[in-house]
Amino acid sequence: MRAQASVLHLDLDAFFAAVEQRDKPSLRGKPVVVGGVGGRGVVATASYEARRFGVRSAMTTREARSRCPHAAFLTGRFHAYREASAIVMGLLREASPLVEPLSLDEAFVDLAAADLPDLEVATVSAYAETLRARVHEATGGLTASVGIGTSKFIAKVASDLDKPDGLVVVAPGTERELLRPMNVTVIPGVGPATGERLRRAGIVTVADLEAVDLDELVRLVGKAHGAGLHALARAQDDRAVVADREAKSVSSESTFDTDLTDRSLMEHLLTRQAGEVATRLSKHGLSGRTVTIKVRMHDFTTLSRSTTLPSPTDSAPTVARLARRLLADLDTSGGVRLLGVGVSGLADWVQEDLFGETLGEALGEALGEAGDGAETAPEVELPDLSRVRDRSGWWPGADVVHDELGRGWVWGAGRGVVTVRFETAETPAGPVRSFAHDDPALHPWQKPVEDEPEEP
């Protein structure tokens, strides 16, 4: 814990939903839910208007619809979220060279590395207000809640205290007073299971937790977890703001509207996901030793299986081959609702770089399979599962453009009809029109890619 409040945590308010409201004038001030829109969808973000009806992140879309049936349910537009996030992260990096992004919509900033005259509460408060105003202006109206404290833990807690569009600075020396009345779930790592275990022991608030000695906590929740809770209950957190957070794993997974029972299809889906993971590894110059598959069964039971290589790889055929072998050990006859592939144990080199040998060949020989790098599974036509919830391809909320009417977004689609509201962030709320789903005048819209300036 620092002597001064110099760790800032910024959290964009209801980020995905706020971007949709910014870009869709007819939705401003109205309930908006972003996430999966199918029967098995899950809420990613709900606007504050939707939260008043009890809609929350990670809630099933089915329950969200029952609580707030008049909300706009939209799928995500990640290009818009990434663009807004890049603007905000750029502003934060202008503030300090030490910025630790946690996700698209939140980050820690080390103000001790910023160009400030001092780190007194009045100084950092004024600076944070200026930063919030810049975020609002640069993003076209998005708001951010900010917390500042003597540690990452305190800053994160503070940013949640005055949402949305708030600022809380916790003065040095007041941290324990702030925490004591709060529920123990405010502490990172205290989820439902740990919270219930503590509740049974009579520990409900942080003050209760603070009163428990280390030996008792270790007995209740284990050595490592107990030591962490003991420290955080006393506001002790010495974690540094790290500018470049190292990835621990790279993964890809999909949830399906209809349970999968065809083993051949599952194998080919794993092959596709392995290719996506390998591409991302290669793009970032990484490789990994441990291949893991994640399988969620029809009854929501989630299983994982993994295997570790003697040396790291970024080979798609190798990852796919191992993923398929792991799947072979599982009984999937009851149906599968989610499949995923991940690679961990990351390194910044691959076996081929060191020894001039294709790891896929060596592994193929070791596993008794073809080692020429080619996939051994037969080629089949795969359904486009990215559009499994809307066979026409028109997603609620997606950007479209009409040859005559211009830009808009998909209000809804089904039964061969797609309904579009014609408006953008720069226009007033626009009219609604319906078209046949295969109308040649209606197209998906993508932001034009700006030409790179030519080298002199």
TrEMBL record:
Residues reported in the UniProt entry to bind Mg(2+): 11, 105
Compartments in which it is found: Cytoplasm
Enzyme Commission number, as recorded: 2.7.7.7
Keywords: Cytoplasm, DNA damage, DNA repair, DNA replication, DNA-binding, DNA-directed DNA polymerase, Magnesium, Metal-binding, Mutator protein, Nucleotidyltransferase, Transferase
Keyword field contains Protein transport: no
Region (Disordered): 428-456
GO molecular function, one term: DNA-directed DNA polymerase activity
Principal location class: cytoplasm
Marked site positions, Substrate discrimination: 16
Cofactor requirements of the protein: Mg(2+)
Cofactor note: Binds 2 magnesium ions per subunit.
Biological processes per GO annotation: DNA repair; DNA-templated DNA replication; error-prone translesion synthesis; SOS response
Residues covered by the UmuC domain: 7-191
Catalytic residues, chain numbering: 106
Annotated InterPro entries: DNA/RNA_pol_sf, DNA_pol_Y-fam_lit_finger_sf, DNA_pol_Y-fam_little_finger, DNA_polymerase-Y, DNApol_IV, IMS_HHH_1, Rev_trsase/Diguanyl_cyclase, UmuC
Catalytic activity: DNA(n) + a 2'-deoxyribonucleoside 5'-triphosphate = DNA(n+1) + diphosphate
GO (cellular component) term, any one: cytosol
Summary of subunit composition and partner proteins: Monomer.
Function field: Poorly processive, error-prone DNA polymerase involved in untargeted mutagenesis. Copies undamaged DNA at stalled replication forks, which arise in vivo from mismatched or misaligned primer ends. These misaligned primers can be extended by PolIV. Exhibits no 3'-5' exonuclease (proofreading) activity. May be involved in translesional synthesis, in conjunction with the beta clamp from PolIII.
Similarity remark: Belongs to the DNA polymerase type-Y family.
Protein name, as recorded: DNA polymerase IV
Originating species: Nocardioides flavescens
